[in-house]
């Protein structure tokens, strides 16, 4: 019995070939179609929105950590001995979890979890974590219909 050689097959998830470069090159050459230009504009708008959202999370982190005076008063930051969760969790006044949230307010583990969550989401958004895994879902996102010109 002879062994047959089979071509090596790659295991794991296979992503379709990326066509990102062609649309950007066409836009630079001036030969971009309406759909390509719309796609580029949509991608840039989404990137700006992502960076602005990241800025919101990072600003909240630094304001809570150092008490820059926006939502957290000066001298009440986390580094000054304040608790980032005390005001929010102790302010819960209704619901079945009210007593639980009041018990968690000001606990060190809750402060650390809250602050690491703010920092983690902000850094992930700025750095673009998980943009590649979402690439195969791009065809599923709704795009505006192309403009029809009547001659």
From TrEMBL:
Transmembrane segments: 41-62, 112-131
Keywords recorded for this protein, A-Z: Membrane, Transmembrane, Transmembrane helix
Name of the protein this chain belongs to: Integral membrane protein
């Amino acid at each position: 019995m002879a062994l047959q050689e089979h071509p090596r097959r790659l295991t794991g998830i296979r992503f379709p070939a990326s066509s990102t470069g062609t649309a950007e090159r066409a836009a630079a050459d001036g030969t971009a179609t309406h759909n390509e230009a719309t796609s580029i504009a949509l991608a840039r708008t989404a990137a700006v929105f992502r960076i602005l959202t990241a800025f919101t999370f990072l600003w909240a982190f630094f304001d809570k950590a150092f008490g820059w005076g926006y939502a957290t008063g000066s001298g009440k930051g986390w580094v000054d001995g304040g608790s980032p969760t005390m005001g929010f969790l102790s302010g819960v006044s209704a619901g079945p979890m009210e007593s639980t949230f009041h018990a968690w307010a000001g606990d060190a583990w809750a402060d650390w979890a809250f602050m690491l969550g703010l920092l983690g989401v902000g850094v992930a958004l700025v750095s673009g974590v998980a943009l590649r895994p979402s690439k195969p879902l791009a065809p599923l996102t709704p795009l505006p219909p192309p403009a029809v010109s009547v001659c």
